[in-house]
Amino acid sequence: MSMEDYDFLFKIVLIGNAGVGKTCLVRRFTQGLFPPGQGATIGVDFMIKTVEINGEKVKLQIWDTAGQERFRSITQSYYRSANALILTYDITCEESFRCLPEWLREIEQYASNKVITVLVGNKIDLADKREVSQQRAAEFSEAQDMYYLETSAKESDNVEKLFLDLACRLISEARQNTLVNNVSSPLPGEGKSISYLTCCNFN
Amino acid sequence: MRPKMAAATAPGPKALPGESGGPASSALSMERIQSLTDLADLEAAYSRLCEEEKVVQEELDALLEQQSTIENKMVALHRMGPNLQLIEGDAQQLAGMISFTCNLAENVSSKVRQLDLAKNRLYQAIQRADDILDLKFCMDGVQTALRNEDYEQAAAHIHRYLSLDKSVIELSRQGKEGGIIDANLKLLQEAEQRLKTIVTEKFDTAMKQGDLPQVERFFKIFPLLGLHEEGLSKFSEYLCKQVANKAEENLQLVMGTDMSDRRAAVIFADTLTLLFEGIARIVETHQPIVETYYGPGRLYTLIKHLQVECDRQVEKVVDKFIKERDYHRQFQQVQNSMMRSSSAEKIEPRELDPILTEVTLMNARSELYLRFIKRRVIADFEVGDAMASEEVKQEHQKYLDKLLNNCLLSCTMQELIGYYITMEEYFMRETVNKAVSMDSYEKGQLTSSMVDDVFYIVKKCIGRALSSSSIDCLCAMINHSTTELESDFREVLYNKLKQGFPATTFQDFQRGVTSAVNIMHSSLQQGKFDTKGIESTDEAKQSFLVTLNNVEVCSENIMTLKKTLESDCSKLLSQGFGGEQAQAKIESCLSDMAAVSNKFRDLLQEGLNELNSTAIKPQVKPWINLFLSVSHNIEEEEFSDYEANDPWVQQFIVNLEQQMTEFKAGLSPVIYDTLTGLMTSLIAIELEKVLLKSTFSRLGGLQFDKELRSLIAYLTTVTTWTIRDKFARLSQMATILNLERVTEILDYWGPNSGPLTWRLTPAEVRQVLALRIDFRSEDIKRLRL
């Protein structure tokens, strides 16, 4: 594993209604682009970006899923191996916000219980069309115990911050996890919780 | 000439040494000579001057020798004089001729230039005249052709007219006969309109009659009239009608198909295949006409029209499929079964088998068709856009992507595959559960039936997903399989191992029936009454060992499965299926799957540790403890007595042998080897413990050395692990116990250790030395280690 040029590897999956800008967020972060007139994502897209955080190379494997209903069974299959989920809605689209509880149910059902979920309100460049107030979203995220951020993929606002903050949190979680695992070496025949992060942590 | 020559030679002898500051002047200056007063000095100067004179004389002689050669050369030069004068005259004449020719050439070429210009103008004039004549010819020709219903001819005339330079027409209108031409032009324009109407009408009639030769005839005329788009759209309309008719027919056939038919289970996939093949054939057949008469880059337009009909027909077929196969209801049922855990309402997974196969086949056909269309259009665009800018090319690519991604066919198939994945996941999970519940073990086998069954099922499900040719579908099923193996199936094996390895027969003998009762009791407490588990301890033991084998095979199978899938996928990708990231996506999903293999390895290790600590340790420990009851504080007599009747080690080896036979038979060689590895480590540790509790005489030390050697020799035969390393500490202790006297240790310690690496700390060495009753503690303390 040491041949690989990174210290950590994390899987991040973006979910949320169709058209909220998941693909644009990913493109902005991985390629620095904002491709207008993007077609709907088919199935899942896959991007990799390696970032350096406090001198450590962190490889982020980003899965950009299709928001459309008919791809749901494909995207659901990626939840379980995800280290983090970015649940995205469009601040100019009330509907996309109202669907959030449904998405949370999906997360509950399919994702690992250790997954980190971030709530992202995208398209803040369209401030005059805003339908979901920051306060509402903040309250919602607090109630659900989620980290919350508003972004603009178009203006590149908070996009870098979103992914880098997430990477930081994933690193500290991973550290805690290995620590816990090292302290209590599992007894044979007793429930050894298989850390979902052990496969990612090569420190 | 002579005097001249003499004059020429004159400077030779004139150049005397000493006269000027030349190279030959004397080394002694006049002043210096005059200032000389001493006779000896004078003589010396004189002799030097004499020498110089001699040298100068020789040089002069050499120069004079050259005189005749130089004179000869001069004569030759003088002879050449008159010739030179002749040459000068010739050269002047030549220069004159050249400049004359040059002027002439200049004149000629300027005239040629003028001629060339005139010729060009003339050509242009002729071209114009031709055009005007053509125009007239077209005007007349169109009328005649139309009268004769020779539409190709008429269209050719119109085409000629349309391709004429508009300024020519303007020019001819301005001419003297402007009025006539104007009238004629009007006629021509009317003819054009008439021809357009006629061609459209005739095409429609031919289309209605299904008269392909006539359809093609008029299709070829459209581009001549500049009606490319209209022609393509009309022609597509005709082709779409063909497609629709054929599809209708096929669908009727489907409805009439006997359920016992060989292809009945995949009849809808077959129908879709026929539809796609039909369209592909149409494209294949008519692409040449389109390319010849409409030019390259037009195929996209044709296919865009065709795709509309294709979508319409696909919708019909899929609707029928959904209705006939009860696809949605089956999906609903699956969803309900997944929500509720009660087994009563569960849909039988076997019932889903045919429909799952059919759906993947349908999707595979669609992917094949879409790939065909894509390749064709891209190739056509490539020819058409050879000269186009990069932007136009990208624009075209975008059109194509949009067409392929947004067509109803793609969306419908994505929807079907969406349902399919959920149902396939259900199929896999339920079938795996069934395999687990029907698990059986045959004597003589290392593993039980469920491992093979489960991997057969997982392979089947992923294989089916792969056969859909959809990379996303495949990845989703790989993900689901990973989950199934990692959580559900691993859990099953884990729970089996958790029941533990029951007490050994030896202990059974001691404890009697109690252990069986205990097992039963604990099973009851767990709420599970696993009859298999309590029928006998033997079976429980076997179950544990079989499970260990199962776990190992699982770990192996996952890696094999991964490798197989890798090669299958690379085949699929090499055929051009999947997007740019397909490879990376598959790789990532497969590497997640491979990680599960390690989790099975971990589980195996846990199970072995369990076996070691519950089955081997409780046995081995008492056997080793027996060592304590054998005194090693012995004299010669006892030593030879031990020689004859071994007090401990032989029995210990026999016991080990007996115990391990059971495991050797029941475990795969790899696991057995790991287990013996664990056992030898255990023996080494335990033996060290008892050793430190014993006391030794000199002969006792020797006895222990013998015992250790026998033990190591035996263990080396039963395992492939290197025993020596594990017993290094014990061997070193034996060495210490065999010393003649305390200080002898220094022959082996520190700088004298040679190739030996001590595994004992100085404190431990002292501790072992102290076990020898004949070693004085002061001597040991005094040792410098």
UniProtKB/TrEMBL annotation, chain A:
User: Where is this protein found?
Assistant: Autolysosome membrane; Cytoplasmic vesicle, Autophagosome membrane; Golgi apparatus, cis-Golgi network membrane; Golgi apparatus, trans-Golgi network membrane
Q: What is its EC number?
A: 3.6.5.2
Please state what the protein is called: Ras-related protein Rab-30
EC class name: hydrolase
Gene name for this UniProt entry: RAB30
Q: Which SUPFAM superfamilies match?
A: P-loop containing nucleoside triphosphate hydrolases
The record gives the membrane topology as: Lipid-anchor
The beginning of the lineage is: Eukaryota, Metazoa, Chordata, Craniata, Vertebrata
Q: Which Gene3D superfamilies match?
A: P-loop containing nucleotide triphosphate hydrolases (3.40.50.300)
Which keywords does UniProt give here? Cytoplasm, Cytoplasmic vesicle, Golgi apparatus, GTP-binding, Hydrolase, Lipoprotein, Lysosome, Magnesium, Membrane, Metal-binding, Methylation, Nucleotide-binding, Prenylation
Q: Which GO terms describe its biological process?
A: Golgi organization; lipid homeostasis; Rab protein signal transduction; vesicle-mediated transport
| InterPro entries membership | P-loop_NTPase, Rab, Rab30, Small_GTP-bd, Small_GTPase
> What is the recorded function of this protein according to its Swiss-Prot or TrEMBL entry?
The small GTPases Rab are key regulators of intracellular membrane trafficking, from the formation of transport vesicles to their fusion with membranes. Rabs cycle between an inactive GDP-bound form and an active GTP-bound form that is able to recruit to membranes different sets of downstream effectors directly responsible for vesicle formation, movement, tethering and fusion. RAB30 is required for maintaining the structural integrity of the Golgi apparatus, possibly by mediating interactions with cytoplasmic scaffolding proteins.
Automatic annotation (TrEMBL), chain B:
Indicate the family of this protein: Belongs to the COG4 family.
Where does it live in the cell?
Golgi apparatus membrane
The name this protein goes by in its record: Conserved oligomeric Golgi complex subunit 4
What is the phylogenetic placement of the source species in the record?
Answer: Eukaryota, Metazoa, Chordata, Craniata, Vertebrata
Region of interest: Disordered: 1-26
Where is this protein chiefly located? Golgi
Q: Which residues form the COG4 transport protein middle alpha-helical bundle domain?
A: 188-498
Q: Which keywords label this protein? A: Coiled coil, Golgi apparatus, Membrane, Protein transport, Transport
> Highest taxon of the source?
Eukaryota
Please give the organism: Malurus cyaneus samueli
